[in-house]
Design brief:
single chain, 293 residues, alpha+beta, Jelly Rolls, 7-stranded antiparallel beta sheet, 5-stranded antiparallel beta sheet, 5 helices, 15 strands
Length: 293
């Protein structure tokens, strides 16, 4: 009987020791195609890091790159959005600074943004959006670094994807743009939105790939123009960053207000105690006088 009890106790101990190992979840390999979160603790803002992009951020300047293009995000001390965008360009690369060729405003789900296009002489086209919030201008820059192609990432007010693509092409490729797409492809992105990709053959032999997706009353369009046969890899990474951008609000004013209220209450309480103490002293003197009489 005692041997049976000992065996049962040993069996229970073995099962208890093995339980943690059995309960461990299997190791999973991170999905390289998953969008990751990024937060800039120095400037107090965050956004998604697009899948396939490297994080090259330093200090208060956020910098993502996929080898073909760069995305920069930073906050500057300015309450004028266009001046803030210009300051951001100077901080990232003084060669970017020039007069904008296009300027427009869009009201997105995360605020009103001013978007500008810069075409520095001999340099990459710079797409810039900026928003003033909490006495700072938050600026997102998109720079395409391929010498044989031009890329625009723009938002146009249209709830029809083909009309939105046509509008963007007229603004940035050719005011008389009226070509029929040589091919059209539709896919579903991570947000389960329909992404339409049109390919055009331009006069002179260049190829234009236009990608558009409708969100609300706006069409988000990426245009890339390159010589026929050149590498073209249109993606909406800049819009992923823009739509996922958020700022941690500054609560220092509320902190100061709270400390002020606490200070007033504390001083009021101390004054009340002091007045009561003096009143009690007066009462004590009165009682002593009455007792003496």
């Amino acid at each position: 009987m005692q041997n049976w009890i000992r065996r049962a106790v040993l069996l229970v101990l073995v099962l208890l020791m093995a339980a943690p190992a059995l309960a461990q979840e299997p190791e999973t390999t991170p999905d390289p195609n998953a969008t990751r979160a990024y937060y800039n603790s120095a400037a107090l803002f965050g956004m998604p890091l697009p899948a396939g992009w490297d994080n090259l951020s330093e200090g208060e300047i956020t910098h993502f790159s996929d080898g073909r293009s760069d995305i920069y995000v930073l906050a500057v001390s300015s309450t004028d959005v266009e001046a803030g965008i210009r300051t951001a360009l100077e901080r990232v690369n003084p060669a970017f600074v020039t007069e904008p060729s296009k300027t427009s405003t869009v009201n997105l789900q995360n605020g009103t943004w001013t978007q500008q296009i810069f075409t520095p002489e001999g340099g990459a086209i710079i797409n810039a959006v900026g928003q003033v919030y909490d006495n700072r201008t938050f600026v997102l820059l998109f720079s395409h670094n391929q010498p044989d192609s031009d890329t625009y990432a723009v938002i146009v007010e249209s709830a029809d994807v083909q009309a939105g693509i046509l509008d963007a092409a007229k603004r940035f490729i050719d005011p008389d743009f009226a070509l029929e797409a040589a091919s059209t492809e539709e896919t579903i992105n991570a947000d389960e939105l329909v992404v339409t990709t049109n390919t055009y053959t331009l006069d002179g032999g260049d190829e234009l790939v236009a990608q558009g997706e409708v969100r609300g009353n706006f069409t988000y369009v990426v245009l890339e123009r390159a010589p026929a046969g050149a590498e073209i890899d249109v993606n909406d990474a800049f819009f992923t960053v823009l739509l996922g951008f958020f700022v941690t609000p500054s609560t220092s004013n509320y902190l100061l207000l709270g400390l002020g209220v606490i200070a007033v209450i504390t001083l009021g309480f101390a004054l009340s105690v002091f007045l009561r103490f003096r009143s009690a002293q007066q009462d004590l003197k009165t009682l002593e006088q009455l007792q003496a009489e």
